[in-house]
Amino acid sequence: MTGPLLFLLGLTLVLGLLVVRRAPRQLGPALADAARQGRKIGLRIPLGIFIATVLAQLIPREAIGPVIGPESGVRGILAATAFGAMMPGGPMVTFPIALLVWDMGAGKAQIVAFLVSWSIFAVHRILSFELPLMGGRFVALRLLSAWYLPPLAGLIALALIPLVPAF
Description:
Elements: H1 3-22, H2 27-42, H3 44-58, H4 61-68, H5 73-86, H6 91-103, H7 108-121, H8 123-134, H9 136-146, H10 149-160
Helix pairs in contact: 3-6, 5-7, 5-10, 6-7, 7-10, 8-9
């Protein structure tokens, strides 16, 4: 077992015991909610991993390095920012794809920019949810106030990589 898995198991046990001790009647509904959430995402994770591995067969490994590899620098950070903004889907698809392109030679700073961009600018979320619900003025305000964050995060990551041990 890995450290993060052990941490999650320990946290689950501690929180479960707290519920049993403080509000035992809430344990049943909590377990039912967990099962419902598990059914929702249980299929998404394997599908996301499958999509990522199929994409690995379609994208030549040698195409990754020049575009978003560690040596691509600022240009690669900007490209990764654009890719992140255009990335459709939620975390069940995006994180397996990020891991895939990282394994195929993408740089760490470029992956940081990709994930931050996807978190902030995913075009599909803006068009499907934010624009209809919040309106164009709010979307413009948010985008104009946050456009620099993914490249900045990539640049900060680039500077931190030599300082972070075992990375």
